Amino acid sequence: MTRLRAGDLTGIAAGLSRYDEELRARTGRGLFGLACRAAGVPERRARRRVEGALAAVVPMDSGQGLIPGFADAVRAVLAHLGCRAYVTPEADVAGLADAYENASDLIVAADDLRFIALSTRTRRVVDNAGATGRGFVAGLELMAGGLARRQVLVLGCGQVGAAAASALLGRGAVVSLFDPSPERAARLIEATPGPLRGRLSLEPEIPGAIRRHRLIVEATPAAGTITEELVDEHTRVAAPGVPLGVTPEAARKLDGRLLHDPLQIGVATMLMEALGS
């Protein structure tokens, strides 16, 4: 998983109501509704599954250790969506034991390699990388008024970008890929089922690719990939990458046509995919 910094999490818990308002202005949906769309779950059914569910966020102290504020921010997002959510008082195995002893319906945990939501109801495990890619594609679809037969550029073919590409194909888009490693992008195409492979193509360089596309998923771990001169009034960008791959000047030019957050959409989609189906 991309390792967040404490500064990326500042203000998430306190700003969730304002975040919902901004998300509605961009997409027409709040966080709950967008995550339901990403997961393919009707909102009414998801409400029944999520409200009252107990979610335990288990801090993990392995590898590079705890990210200050991470567990509290995840708990706040889950609570905002209707769960009874708490951070276990102990980390690692003791935290997992606490989650099971309290009969938690959902266990959320992250280390340097994986960030997962585990449903004790369904035994389903949802990875944040995939959920984030699918969540941001759902947001882009709402911003764009549909993706069927639309050309979409995916920058970055890591786990999030690969999940985004798959979700775009599932929503009928025609997908162009760019990755600093052409071999990685080529492997993604090779791994795509044959009937869908014809809607995938490779882009050789970033500036021209961005100029040729109006719909973009920016899923790289690099800052400032998309600059002001590459976008216009028709460009719409869903940017799950951390740090934000859009320069401040480009972000101002995009205004309400930029979708980005460090945590919220991915966590919300994990919840809906784990509990809402």
Write the layout of secondary structure elements.
Layout lengths: L5 H4 L6 H12 L3 H9 L3 H8 L3 E5 L11 H11 L3 E4 L4 H10 L4 E5 L4 E5 L5 E3 H17 L6 E5 L3 H12 L3 E5 L3 H10 L2 H4 L2 E3 L3 H7 L2 E4 L17 E3 L9 H7 L3 E2 L4 H12 L2
Parallel strand pairs: 1-2, 1-3, 6-7, 6-9, 7-8, 9-10, 10-11
Antiparallel strand pairs: 3-4, 4-5
Helix pairs in contact: 3-7, 3-13, 7-8, 7-13
Short account of what is shown:
The protein is α/β, with parallel strands linked by helices and 277 residues long.
Write a structural description.
This protein has a six-stranded parallel β-sheet with strand order 8-7-6-9-10-11, sandwiched between helices. Strands 2-1-3-4-5 form a five-stranded mixed β-sheet, with helices on both faces. Helices cover 44% and strands 16% of the residues. It has helices spanning 6-9, 16-27, 31-39, 43-50, 70-80, 92-101, 128-144, 159-170, 182-191, 194-197, 206-212, 248-254, 264-275, and strands at 54-58, 84-87, 106-110, 115-119, 125-127, 151-155, 174-178, 200-202, 215-218, 236-238, 258-259. It is globular. The protein is built from 13 helices and eleven strands. It has 277 residues and is an alpha/beta fold.
